[in-house]
Amino acid sequence: MSSKLAAARYGKDNVRVYKVHRDEKTGFQTVVEMTVCCLLEGDIDVSYTKADNSVVVATDSIKNTIFILAKQHPVTTPEVFASIIGNHFIQKYSHIHVAHVNIITHRWTRMTIDGKPHPHSFLRDGAETRNVQVDVTEGKGIEIASTIQGLHVLKSTGSQFWGFVRDEYTTLPEVWDRILSTEVDATWKWKKFSSLAEVQADSARFDNAWSAAREITLSTFAKENSPSVQATMYKMADQILAAVPQVETVEYSLPNKHYFEVDLKWHKGLKNTGKDAEVFAPQSGPNGLIKCTVARTSRPKL
Ligand SMILES: O=c1[nH]c(=O)c2[nH]c(=O)[nH]c2[nH]1
């Protein structure tokens, strides 16, 4: 045979987990709903190449383990819980050397009823999720990337786009006032952690970073008179790096969701373009897609 197994990982995806925390004193309940993916790597080649299942921890057992760990440990922050899951597999099975854990946390925001926070009712206020990708490698530490995904935003003015390349391929007019809309996908990668204990030592830093990243994203989007998606996303990433010292890189991936003017002058001379534009046609596609990764400049050597 002239082939070999070049890479392999396996596990359970779409493990849906819900956990409730009941505060007996206040009667308030808090809920977390997440979708977990856990993939393992290690000395598992023979399961592919020799049909030898003796090295296989069944994906069904991986799913069971996720539920058991969710019962035994806090599931917040997702960064810590994913590290607990990943660490479990490399500790428990000597032939498993890497665990890749992804957690998508869905929004269940407490309802306000009669002006007061309700003790046990929640609503899904948007498609936004808080995600983590945690890679635990035996003897090499824990890599964590935290993400805000699916945060839909729009501003009806305060955005421009001009000065771009004009040539025989160009039809887009320059604009000094346009609609800007996107679906935020922002990821910040943490400096590598040496152990689970180091990740657990300060769980709050993950919540603080998420709040800072979300606040910086929204306030920059709202306040800036944006010259382009590119310049705006760079500004956001730069501020997150300044706000969270333990973060090494920040990545944004932003679709530019276009809203086209509709010329209605053919109908009784209706004015609906330029400064008279009020009715627009939102486009499903094609859309711009703008990405960047922003890192720290290395410190000057003394
Ligand atoms: O912010 C923008 N960046 C682009 O690169 C681009 N290209 C385009 O057609 N519109 C826009 N808007």
UniProtKB/TrEMBL annotation:
Coiled coil: none annotated. Its main location: other. It holds the Pfam family Uricase. It is found in: Peroxisome. CDD domains: Uricase. Urate binds at residues 59-60, 161, 178, 229-230, 256. InterPro entries: Uricase, Uricase_CS. NCBIfam families: urate_oxi (TIGR03383). This is Uricase.
